[in-house]
Amino acid sequence: MSALKLFDNKYMFTVENQATGSSFQVEKNEIILDGAMSNGIGFPYGCRNGFCGKCKATLIEGEVDYKDGVPPGLSAEEVADRMILPCKCSAQSDLSIVLTELKSVADIEVRTLPCKVDKIEHLNHDVAKVVLKIPGNEALQYLAGQYIDLIHPDFEPRAFSIANAPHNTGLIELHVRLISGGKFTNFVFNELQEKSLLKIEGPKGSFYLRETSEKPMIMVAGGTGFGPVKAMVEHAIESNAQRKIDIYWGARTEQDLYTDLPQTWAKEYDYINFIPVLSQADEQWQGRTGYVHEAVLADFETLTNYEVYACGPPEMVRSAANTFVKKGMFENNFYNDSFDFAYQAGQS
Question: Whole-angstrom Cα distance, residue 16 to residue 94?
Fold first, then answer.
């Protein structure tokens, strides 16, 4: 094993997974699972509190430390066999471990968990940010871009995309748009209170960031379709992927662009570009107008070498799929999540 290294005045160690060949660096007292997640590496986990044992790994070489002692998820026999729980220990040297990493949504368990409404914030006239807190002894493992079903005893379960990256998985952020005639969204937007108890089921869906690819990405969002795009971009930034990202956000009016976060990204990271597109712009608007997918077509001569992530109203997603293929996009490089539920009057 190599000696302790000093980067930017912080002691750093390398963690290598012999099962996959992946490796990443952690600070001396950083929880190993946190380091894996921040580097976009899919270590499995469940409770993140040392109880369930789902993150168990075999320590081949190196030393770890448990701040609060060996957690209950490990038996004395497992400790003797050099098993560790990355969710609770930190590296004290370079580490060589063996662990089966998650590679796809098929590897992630769909779970039903209780949650409490931690915060409700109205972002504009018809979009609310709802933050759900999962009990301290639980966590929801998911991939950036996936969704959950929100469960309330008085309504049918409704699907909402997760709008935060999978780094603090004790908190789940949702962007909820008020749908005309929608019973559930009206309840969430106008009646749901902080500290209310709900349930979630997930994660679900095949719309997620393909982290092993190095292709530049075009993100096309319509309305609250920006939510999962936000999760993906946050995860790419946290993982230091630095793949080129062009974000196109389509909305009716300027007030429907309910956060200035993408502008902030574009200013802070030279590999991120942001283009808002309004379909019903007023005279004061100085930016792009029309349909968001048409803006993409106008800006790119070919889409052959790009991955496209499209999320929002069904017509937007269909139009993007049909026209982007004609522009050279390969069908297997098109990932989408169509918000069909928003068009089921009286049920949303």
Answer: 8
DSSP secondary structure code for residue 109 in this structure:
P
Q: What is the mean pLDDT of each run of 10 residues along the chain (348 residues)?
A: 44 92 91 87 83 90 94 91 94 94 78 95 96 86 94 92 89 94 90 95 92 94 97 92 95 97 98 98 95 98 97 94 95 89 40
Question: C-alpha angle 340/237/52, rounded to 5°?
Answer: 75
Q: Starting from the edge strand earliest in sequence, which strands make up the sheet with 288-289, in order?
A: 288-289, 272-278, 245-251, 217-222, 307-312, 334-338
Residue range of the domain that includes 221: 217-341
Number of domains forming the structure of the chain: 3
* Strand 83-84 with 57-61, pairing: antiparallel
| C-alpha dihedral, 12 to 13 to 17 to 21, nearest 10° | 70
Query: What does the pLDDT read at residue 347?
Result: 40
The predicted pLDDT at position 281 comes to: 94
CATH of residue 331's domain is 3.40.50.80
Report phi then psi at 83, rounded to 5: -85, 145
Q: Note whether 48 and 156 are same-domain residues.
A: no
